[in-house]
């Protein structure tokens, strides 16, 4: 979550998300029109592009050098692409192709997958756990889990009754979140076992189309956005496991009685009682528009980012201690050049609430992974900070080296 890639009718653009106030454009290409897929390998120079002009062809570029590393053509339109430092996954409607990202060789083809018209799939960004998740059924909410390293099926998870709409791994590949087309319940499972860990209720009044599901880097929060005006952020915690023994008060006694009573209720009823509500929310000033969210740490503070299909980026402050309504602090135009008048008008920077300032002061209790900055443009750590060992593939991936990939011609 340290950079942003957008495809446009004229090409694609890459931005760096290192500052709230200023959106830095890293690269712009107008060589290929009508780009509908653009995936960047973290903050490296490798970018994968698919255009409506050739929807069956994947182009892999080194954008700093302006060179094409390779291109591959497939039997039908490419619906989505996922990549980490070990694997590159290409998803078609009824098949999935897994490439070795070091030399782009095709390692495995998963044929005859259930019809997947949206190209729904998720790949763990932690290459040590290169798990791949995709729909195991077109009619039910079954998740097929595949090990991208051993190239073997890991397990099948019966996640929902209805067809799947969203899938997302956490940063380490140890958890998988899912939502169905109904969009009312979001579940989190352990990986690779598939046990249900959490269940969150997004809402009961209406069905929604969940367009984005994402964990924070420290796996403490899970964000869900849809075609409605509300973005929900859930906190992953088991209060009953972590809190100390309650004092013998009336409320504490009743709480234990209620918890015990749920053991005797039908599973559906007790499950409803145990589901958590959203920890924090955002009220967007629009609805019905496709959007993608991210939970990131920018300038050492937790932020919620919302990017919309009309070309805007909204940045909100997230209070990690008290939650509640997130505060909009910046709106950027992704289609303009530089800082537009619109950006100046939307310089929304109200003073932060005192409780949030106090939270920031207590940040020493937050795991260090939550402030991991990601990769700089040259593939190294920013400001000398240590990147966790699992972020490196076997052998350094140096995408600015002349010999970064063997010559591939296809």
Automatic annotation (TrEMBL):
SUPFAM superfamilies: WD40 repeat-like (SSF50978). Gene3D superfamilies: YVTN repeat-like/Quinoprotein amine dehydrogenase. GO terms for molecular function: phosphatidylinositol-3-phosphate binding. GO terms for biological process: protein localization to phagophore assembly site; response to stress. Keywords: Autophagy, Lipid-binding, Membrane, Repeat, WD repeat. The keyword Repeat applies. It is found in: Preautophagosomal structure membrane. It is a peripheral membrane protein. One of its GO terms (cellular component) is phagophore assembly site membrane. The keyword rRNA processing does not apply. Residues 362-373 have a biased composition (Polar residues). Residues 362-385 are annotated as: Disordered. Belongs to the WD repeat PROPPIN family. This is WD repeat domain phosphoinositide-interacting protein 1. It comes from Opisthocomus hoazin (Hoatzin).
